[in-house]
Each structure stands twice: as C-alpha cells, then as structure tokens.
Amino acid sequence: MKKITLIISCLCIAAFIVGCSKKEYSLGDLTPPSDIVINAEIVGQSTATPDGDGSGVAKFTIAGKNVIAYKIDYGTTPDLNYESITTMGTVTKKFAPPKGISGTFPFTITLVAFGKGGDFTTVTKTIRLRIDFTVPQDIETKLLGSSSKTWVVDKSVPGHLGVGPWSGFTPNWWAAGVNEKEATAPGLYTATYKFSKLPDGSYTLQVTAPDGIFAKGTTTNLPFGGVNEEKCFPYAGSTKAFSFGPATSGIPLVPAKADDPKSTQVNIMVTGNDGFIGYGSCSNTYEILELTETTMYLRSQGAVEKGNAWYLKLKTP
C-alpha cells in the first residue's frame, strides 16, 4: 500500500513539474517596412498646367509592405509637423500659399512607415503646386486697420475659449463662462496680439504676455512643453511672420440655415510650431470664422491633442 501511495505521489509531482514548465513566447515576424511608395496626383494637372489648376489640392497614394501605421508631414512649415494617417491608401490635402499670395510653390512631403517592433522607414517626395489666393481686402482691413491693430481675448462674452471635436464646428465639449479664467489663468486675458503689415507687404504677429500664456504643457511645442499642467506659463513674448490662406475646414461659404456655422473662408497661418494666438494648443493655423472691425472669432485644430478643435473670441481693447 505504501508502495502504491509513493508511486501516485511521484506521478503527481511529475505532472506538476510538466504543468509548470516555462512557456515560449514569440513576437512573430519583425520584418521592417519595405517598398514604401508615395505617389502624388496634382488636381488639374495637364500639359498646359503642369503644377495644377490653382486649387492647391493634391491626392497622395501610399503603399508599402510590412507596414502597420503611417504618419506624414506635408512640408507646409519650417519644422516637421506630422499627422497620423487614419485611412490607408489615399489621402487628399488642400495646401495654402506660404506667403498668402498666388504663386507656384514646392512642398517636400515626408512619410514615415512603421512596422512591428518599432522599425520604421522614411521616404520623401517633393511636389510643385500652383495656388491661387489673395486675401480679401475687407479681411485685411478689419484685422489690421490702416497698418496694425492689437487684439485681446474677450473675457466679457461666453465661449471666449472653448473646445469641440474636429468633425464639428462648435465648442460643444466645453465653453468658458464670462471671466471664467480671471483667477486661475489671468494671462489668457492680459496677453495682447498685434497684427501688422510691413512696408514690403509681409505680415507679423507680435505677442506680449506680461502674465504668461495659458496652455497645457503636455500639448504644446512652446518652450514649457512637457509639463503636465494647464495654467499660465512664463513667456518672454515673440514676433512671428504670418500669412493668409484659404480655409480648409469645409464650412460652406453660405450656410444652409441661419444658425449653421459661418466662415470667412480665410486662414491665418503663424510661422513655426511655437507661434500661437490666445491658447497654446500647438497649432499655427487659425480659421477666421467671423470678423468685424472690433471682434474676431477663430477656430484652430490642436496639433498635439489631435481631435480637439479650439475656439477663441477676441476683441480690440
């Protein structure tokens, strides 16, 4: 009986040892991305118009092997400003003229293809586009006056700062109440934004921020980037070049209904990723939704917190 019990015990121990044997794991095939191709179709391109029809629209077809994700920079700013591509295959981009005037411009497209295990491959392609755009005179006059005009965030009205989704055109996620940030972020209201036209026809934006600028440190490329707080950060001020371009949000020029979103169809584009207006959302492009001699309503798509569209109401002091 003891012998049988001993045999059974040994079998149980052996089964336990086998059951606890080390499992083997594999990451699978980690072949890096290869055969990455980016082809460009310039809308309106022909023998007579080799750089397109002036619409500034290009369609990019992307292909490759062993790719799980792409990101792309369209070469519209001095620094790389990548966007994730959510639809594989074809992506369409409407370009704005870098100097706010009609012309033919080169853009170097940078595509990064990611594979399993973190491997990536980068390819570039340079295109030339004809873009026909001249800022309407009334927009320039209302924004700049005779040569320059200073603006501030209008704390006296609801929704002077707000946020909503990229897919919509209203700040339906959150909108600031009157004077809401007076105690916690006074720099939002004391910062000034001076738009000027220089004698050579170029434009500048001078930002003065005596109480710092309001931003969330983890969502901006401004000097304090990386700080996980939303507050006013010290800012020495800056003067940046800016230009005008056609709006690309898709808001129709003529609203279907009286209460539908409006747009002037004009963008303000501030040079560099550290140029900004109102809230440091790391965006350098602002669509002018509405503009009068004394009030301005802007929309900007956040460049780091992708999916967020920010709204700003400004006034002349």
SSE layout and pairing:
Elements: H1 2-19, E1 34-42, E2 57-65, E3 69-73, E4 83-84, E5 90-94, E6 103-114, E7 120-131, H2 137-144, E8 148-153, E9 161-165, E10 174-175, H3 187-190, E11 192-197, E12 203-208, E13 213-216, E14 230-233, E15 238-246, E16 266-270, E17 285-291, E18 295-301, E19 308-315
Antiparallel strand pairs: 1-2, 2-5, 3-4, 3-6, 6-7, 8-11, 8-19, 9-10, 9-19, 11-12, 12-15, 13-14, 15-16, 16-17, 17-18, 18-19
What report would you give on this structure?
The protein has three helices and 19 strands. The protein has helices spanning about 1-20, 135-145, 185-190, and strands at about 35-40, 55-65, 70-75, 85, 90-95, 105-115, 120-130, 150-155, 160-165, 175, 190-195, 205-210, 215, 230-235, 240-245, 265-270, 285-290, 295-300, 310-315. An eight-stranded antiparallel beta barrel has the order 8-11-12-15-16-17-18-19. The protein has a four-stranded antiparallel β-sheet with strand order 4-3-6-7, with no helix packed on it. It has a three-stranded antiparallel β-sheet with strand order 1-2-5, with no helix packed on it.
Defining traits:
317 residues; mainly beta; Immunoglobulin-like; Lipocalin; eight-stranded antiparallel β-barrel; four-stranded antiparallel sheet; 19 strands; globular
Number of helices: 3
The structural domain count equals 2
The fraction of residues assigned to DSSP E strands is 35-45%
Shape: globular
- Overall CATH architecture of the largest domain: Beta Barrel
CATH C-level label of the largest domain:
Mainly Beta
Radius of gyration, in angstroms, nearest whole number: 27 Å
Order of strands, main sheet, comes to 8-11-12-15-16-17-18-19
